[in-house]
Fold these 3 entries.
Entry 1:
Amino acid sequence: MKSWERADESEKEVCTLSNHTRRCGARRCRNLSKWQNRTVASGSLTAAMSSAPLVFLVCHGSRDPEYQQAAADLLARVRQRLAPQPVELAQLEGQPLSLAEQIHRHLTARLEGPVVLLSLFMGGGSHVEEDLPAALEQVQARWPHLKLLLTPPIGQHPALLDLVAARVAAAQRLGELTHGWILFGHGSRLPGFAAQLQAGIQALEQRLPGIRLHVAFAAQPPTLEAAVIHCLRLGQYRLRVLPFFLFPGGLLRALQEQAQRLQREWPLLQITVEPPLWRDPQLVQAIQETLQTACLTWK
């Protein structure tokens, strides 16, 4: 059994978000912004809603079959957890319809009740700061009386750090020697994502004394190669790379190929690439808690 499958499913913190107001063109659309320490009781989702919202799990998207299969699997598990809550999948890229058009298609058959766009992005990059608000403006312009809410990226939920900590702890319990861990994210040209992940690394180091943690990105420095060279200089040659993204696909394959290339260049180096996060039960829990908080803002 792999380490992520043995991660403790019982460690689930329930945290919520404070809401603030942001403008969408000439209209206002409420948006959640900061995690707080308010607790939402388990099973309170129905009580928190005066009218069950239509929920869209909004992800990056890809034409890759592995990505699509994993996204469909996560959608099925979320639907099972939230039933009879209506939940759909919407993707920013890789689809014949734009994100706004995907949402329009579902709204045409549902003319009442609020809508929650639950962001499955991992941090505050350009998609979160620019593309999602632009799509939200388009939807709000077409449905001006619709209550529409965009949540913060799921990667900012505290349960995601719990998930990473559980993965590391599970691998340690297996007794396999690991000198260091590299948390690998996509990255962004905007500074917020890297700052978020670096802060997460610092928090994890306090929770996991003795565990060496590093960060690397696909789209910005430090790259995986730079992080590996840094580890080798520290005498860390048995490494595990944990993807800080949800789904398999092209990014995961590129990561695996780069890890293999680096092992060929440095024969002493041993790199294990862990699976992405989409299968972890704590992810579904974080999605449920995010929705609970979104519903509370409408009470």
Note: The beta strands are 16-24, 27-36, 54-59, 87-91, 115-119, 148-150, 180-185, 213-217, 238-243, 270-273.
Entry 2:
Amino acid sequence: MDKKKSPNRSSEVQSLTRALTILNKLSNNDSGLILTELAQICQLPTSTTHRLLTTLENNRFVRFNRSSNLWSVGVQSFVVGNAFARSRNFVPLAKAFMRHLMDEVGETVNLAAQDQDEMVYLAQVESHEIMRTSVRPGSRVPLHCSAVGKAILAGMNENDRNMIIQLEPDAPAENQVFTPKFLENLKKTQVSGYAIDDEEQSIGVRCVASVIYNENGGPLAAISISGPTARITNARIPTLGRLVQKTCKDITAEFGGRLPLDINRPLHATGTKNASTLNNALQLITGGATKKTRSKNS
């Protein structure tokens, strides 16, 4: 009796799949691997691994250091990867996901990116509702009072976040933006995976946002769902938060980005380690550290 081939593997070329597996494993080991280690990791016979490596070496996808006997990724792999980077057009890619999210939730979906201590709106997919929010591409909002801005702040590493905090000019305590309470709320954002603008930017409007990550695990942009408070109720926010977070994860993967957890940085969805880095920011404020003011000439 003939064995039936699995439908999802019937069209695969085994040797090509094995060669790609070798490349993927080498890409995760910057210092290189010896032949036996690589064969073991790929779960392939040593002879097969060597044959595939030789073919890849001839085409410069891998290289072999004869003094150390280590195999590593070759220059042609960089050339191919760089072609992908050149072909990435971020906004059209994101808008396809944004349209799907708008259809799913029925509310306006926005894309924004950071520019120093502000967020710049890049694109929007408007709701079909008569009462809906609208923002012009190119419009700017402060980081601290927008859902997209707070999502970016929560996704930043500690050093970048502290640089933003120190941009705030000296002001009386009642006028300060980055207060201990604000930073405590960022911790909650890191745990939940989404940020909220509860009528901070516009009266009667709520927004829920999450982060798209770049290839280094840093915040690239943010996606938000925005609408009137009558529709974006407190009871609905957790559901919208999960949906916008999923959309951002999907865009991150499609764009070639990496979640912080994938590169040994804490992911805001787990919260524990990444939230703990905010303790230093809290100490920066409560300890009365000197803040850098904006240059008048900038």
Note: Residues 211 and 222 are 4 Å apart (CA to CA).
Entry 3:
Amino acid sequence: MEEIECHPLLQITPETVKKVRQLCDIDDVKRINESLDIVEEWIKKQDHLAEGGSYLCRSLLERVYLLSKGSVEETKRRVERLLTSRGMMPELVMNRTVEEFEAQWEVVNYVPLPKLHPVDQSRVMVTQFLTEKLDPFSILTYFRYCFLIGEYRINYDYTTSERFVIDLTNIHLGLLSKLNPIVIKKAEVLCTEGIGTKIKGIHILNAPPFIDKLVFLLKQALREKVANRVHVHNSYEDLHKHIPRDMLPKDYGGDEQSVSKLCDQWKEQLRTEEAKKKIKSLEKMVSDESKRQTSKFNEEYMGMPGSFRKLTVD
């Protein structure tokens, strides 16, 4: 019988696995394993990917394969993008320790919800601002933590898409000065192009009076397809039309544990030796550009940060 490695804070069942595979048009375990064998052998033969690729565990590789709709060639392309883009954006994903986020935790919560969305099997991630005193908040540190959680989680999770709930309680105009559009754009590129995650929705709650300016800034930094999935909800009941109550925290009229309790569980988990070891191994998931035979990919993506539009907010 097939065994899927799971995590105590993520609810994954055999039925979940079946549904996700069906959504990706894949439901043949033998085909999955044979395809992953081919990809692993291919990685070993790529001089610039061999070392970094050796830290891609089988479960993570399977998630990439699912994102690729069962295409071996597309899986190879996504692996290439993952390892290369991580090396190009070290400020987002390198040299991280759990301890560096202690001050950030006093300002903002960020946590995956235990259950997957019943319709599209997406994982819902919640951001919750805890105080009006935003001085310790850094958008770069925030994204570093988001990617730490995401890259650690993807080793155990079984989904190809995510939704983001952003609670803007306690937010004031001072936040706008902390939102660097270039950092936001880089984060989106790494999330959708590097890791390959599909963003199903961005749901904003408890919007402040200046929400139009905030949404404008956010949308300018996102691709049009993702920007069109930004929703501002005027009530929790409106949110429930998109995300079922039974999977939402009590904070938002749901049945799940509070955001703070879920966050405490994740902090405790990330402080374990197992998690620290896994996080350390993530550092090595990068391509070795000195061994790449062609610079075509590098030229294409290194130009991206320099091509971003200059953004202004009135």
Note: The beta strands are 108-116, 123-129, 161-167, 198-205, 230-232.
